[in-house]
Design goal:
Pfam families: Peripla_BP_4. The protein is of the alpha/beta class. Helices cover about 45% and strands about 15% of the residues. It has two domains: about 130 residues, Response regulator (Rossmann fold, 3-Layer(aba) Sandwich), CATH 3.40.50; about 130 residues, Response regulator (Rossmann fold), CATH 3.40.50. The protein is built from twelve helices and eleven strands.
């Protein structure tokens, strides 16, 4: 009788333990998530700056996703801040979001290191944190979302080296120094350039991701370097600026890499450039927002979600330009997206 009692008691305890473990696992399916937050959620968008067109388009996809989630009864409020490029201001704004107890924070970081303490605080309070594009060094976030920026730079450099026959003089155009996306693209290009010593870097510069400063910077570099054979541009607006600078000086266009900036793609087609491009999809904002809700709803969200890099070349540039009218003249022609795509990405397919 006692044996039967203890056997039953043990089975009951084991069942309770397994049940508790399963419940805990469901509640802790993603980092920072405690399972005690309920829909509809308040989402915070901690924007580092809103002036560049890429950022405006990205925020547009985020806001559209919020409207869709509202219709599903999953979100009731979006809080937006703009740090105007100041990483310290961004930290203060994130702290304000924590103090107001938002359920999720969507973040493009102004610094890879500075937000660590405030993000740890948010994570400890069960706030979902989705960091995309410009990433932080800390793991105290729910998930990081990005394309492979190093692969971006590697593929661009390989294209340029191949187009130049493995030799010649190039200019290298980077985005702002200290921005992780820009730095990682450059790091990815480095091994390719080092493996091809006959490709010589005449000059290298960092500029904002805008056409006007890029054109000005390239104009100065062209005056100092009369013979160039290629341009390794690691940003779309930078490429447009470079093409315009060459054109204004009456210089021959050279093989060039870039991004899905509408102006660059239109110049590419107009001038029959030897070009290559990829993209940092603006819908990363929408995906990050959707992903935050998935995490809050108890879904298993990995610590890092890799977004595949599409390639734009002479074979498919026409497909992008066919949709150009749907995007701002100074904007980016990004690929289509929907929830089915998001689910496929989350499933790792």
């Amino acid at each position: 009788m006692k044996l039967s009692y203890f056997a039953s008691a043990s089975a009951l305890c084991l069942g309770l333990a397994l049940s508790f473990s399963a419940t805990s696992a469901a509640e802790a399916a993603a980092n920072c998530i405690k399972g005690d937050r309920k829909a509809p959620y308040t989402i915070g968008w901690a924007n580092i700056y809103s002036v560049p067109t890429w950022m405006k388009q990205t925020q547009g996809t985020l806001e559209a996703q919020i409207e869709d989630l509202k219709k599903q009864g999953l979100v009731d409020k979006l809080v937006i801040t703009d740090a105007q490029g100041d990483a310290n201001v961004q930290i203060q704004q994130i702290q304000s979001m924590i103090d107001s107890d938002v359920d999720a924070i969507i973040l493009i970081a102004g610094s890879s290191t500075a937000p660590a303490r405030v993000l740890a605080d948010a994570c400890a309070k069960g706030i979902a944190i989705i960091n995309f594009d410009s990433l932080v060094d800390t793991d105290q976030v729910t998930a990081k979302v990005n394309t492979d920026s190093a692969q971006w730079g590697e593929q661009a450099a390989k294209f340029l080296v191949e187009q130049m026959g493995g030799k010649g003089n190039i200019l290298v155009l980077n985005g702002p120094a200290g921005v992780s996306v820009s730095d990682d693209r450059r790091k990815g290009a480095t091994p390719v350039l080092e493996a091809n010593p006959n490709v010589k870097i005449l000059a290298e510069t960092n500029t904002a991701y805008n056409v006007a400063p890029a054109q000005e910077a390239v104009t100065s570099l062209l005056f100092a370097n009369p013979e160039i054979d290629g341009i390794l541009s690691l940003g779309g607006a930078l490429s447009a600026g470079a093409v315009l600078a060459l054109d204004k000086q009456g210089r021959t266009q050279v093989p060039i890499t870039g991004e899905n900036a509408r102006q660059f793609l239109e110049l590419w087609k107009e001038k029959d450039l030897k070009g290559w491009a990829t993209m940092q999809p603006n819908w990363l904002g929408a995906f990050a927002t959707w992903l935050s809700v998935q995490a809050l709803e108890g879904k298993d969200v990995p610590a890092f979600v890799k977004i595949p890099l599409p390639v734009i070349d002479n074979a498919n540039i026409g497909d992008y330009l066919a949709r150009a009218a749907d995007f701002p003249a100074d904007g980016y022609i990004y690929s289509p997206y929907d929830q089915a795509l998001f689910e496929k990405i989350l499933a790792g397919k």
